[in-house]
Amino acid sequence: MTIKSILQGKGADVFSVGPGEDATSIARALATHRIGAALVRDGDGNVLGIVSERDIVRALAREGTPALAHTARELMTADLVTATPETSVAEALALMTNHRCRHLPVMEGGRLAGMVSIGDLVKARIAEAEQEAENLRAFVTAA
């Protein structure tokens, strides 16, 4: 199974924020949308980075409430780990494990094609395992 199949099911819409949005408004948006991260994009839609709940919490732990005034550009991770639509679910899980991240922007030809979370990948892996088990049961029953 590939990332492309996951995006076909969940869609390619990705919530994003502007580089000048402050931590308070980002935190509100994340809570409202019930998501853990948002891409940071410029006015032309170019991906600049990603800002997560973790980024905000770490800034608060370091600086206290003044961190709430920090912008997405100041909080974001600019060195993104990405996948392509052709990346397998297993490869994407390995990327997330190795880089200790929970969200992967999906890029195709230098453009954003979507984003997947660890939850999306685990759900896909479980569905794969269930299908394999069902195929084995059908094979054994037919034999």
Verbal overview:
There is one protein chain. It contains six helices and five strands. It is an alpha+beta fold and 143 residues long. The protein has one domain: Roll (CBS-domain).
Number of strands: 5
Low confidence ranges = none
> What is the CA-CA span between the terminal residues?
27 Å
Domain count: 1
Give me the CATH fold name: CBS-domain
SSE sequence, one letter per element: HEHEEHHHEEH
Keywords: CBS domain
Protein name: CBS domain-containing protein
Domain CBS: 8-68, 76-132
InterPro entries: CBS_dom, CBS_dom_sf, CBSX3_CBS_dom, Diverse_CBS-Domain
Ordered list of secondary-structure elements with their pairings:
Layout (H helix, E strand, L loop, with lengths): L2 H8 L5 E2 L5 H11 L3 E5 L5 E6 H11 L8 H4 L13 H11 L3 E6 L2 E7 H25 L1
Parallel strand pairs: 1-2
Antiparallel strand pairs: 2-3, 4-5
Helix pairs in contact: 5-6
Notable features of this structure?
143 residues; alpha+beta; CBS-domain; three-stranded mixed beta sheet; two-stranded antiparallel sheet; 6 helices; 5 strands; elongated; CBS_dom_sf
Summarize the structure.
With 143 residues, the protein is an alpha+beta fold.
